[in-house]
Design a protein that fits this description.
By secondary structure, the protein is of the alpha/beta class. The chain has six helices and six strands. The strands form two sheets. Strands 5-4-3-6 form a four-stranded parallel beta sheet, sandwiched between helices. Strands 1-2 form a two-stranded antiparallel sheet. Helix 2 crosses helix 4. The longest helix is centred in the middle third of the chain and has 18 residues.
């Protein structure tokens, strides 16, 4: 794109303080422990231990939770609500508003768990498409987080296609963890 061409999309201007404020207000947020261990050289090494992150066992947990919150905030504002401050997400009227929203995605692991957790925390619904190859134990973990699990095809790409169709057919909000040409 040349400097003379205008983008149809607003500029991406990340504000790292925004997700931090939201996560600090989240009732299940905790700082990641940094235990010190001895490296192969015998020198101390700090290890970022994400296994306990929000009870999800994955470093990707925060991104999906934050994405759900941002999409709820955008919908709330579009419906005429005031800008949501972090504590506002847990207000009864905001959770009631979010209850009408369903987030859908395909997953083979971390992303689906994060979307399910975000939906549960903020009062929304989650529907996660899993390929037949994903272990039932993972499907059970998603169900325990309140998500509806849908088995969609044999491989991950089948689940992605099913999540996209689901979104188009039901109006659920597709929260993909990837992108592709034209998307």
């Amino acid at each position: 794109m040349t400097s003379h061409t205008k983008s149809p999309h607003p500029p991406f201007e990340p504000d790292p303080a925004r997700p931090f404020r939201l996560l600090r207000a989240c009732p299940v947020y905790e700082e990641t422990p940094l235990p010190e261990v001895r490296g192969a050289s015998g020198r101390p090494v700090l290890v970022k231990d994400e296994r306990g992150r929000m009870g999800l066992g994955a470093f990707k947990a925060l991104g999906g939770v934050y994405a759900v919150a941002e999409l709820i905030s955008e919908a709330w504002s579009a419906a005429g609500g005031a800008d949501l401050q972090p504590e506002g997400f847990l207000e009864p009227e905001v959770k009631e508003f979010a209850r009408a929203m369903t987030f859908v995605c395909a997953s083979a692991g971390n992303h689906g768990m994060a979307v399910a957790a975000g939906a549960r925390i903020f009062g929304a619904n989650a529907r996660i498409h899993l390929a037949g190859s994903v272990p039932e134990s993972f499907a059970n973990r998603l169900t325990a987080k309140g998500a509806q699990v849908v088995r969609s095809g044999a491989v991950y790409d089948d689940a992605v296609a099913a999540a996209l169709r689901d979104s188009e057919e039901t109006g659920a909000i597709l929260l993909a963890d990837g992108s592709w040409p034209g998307y």
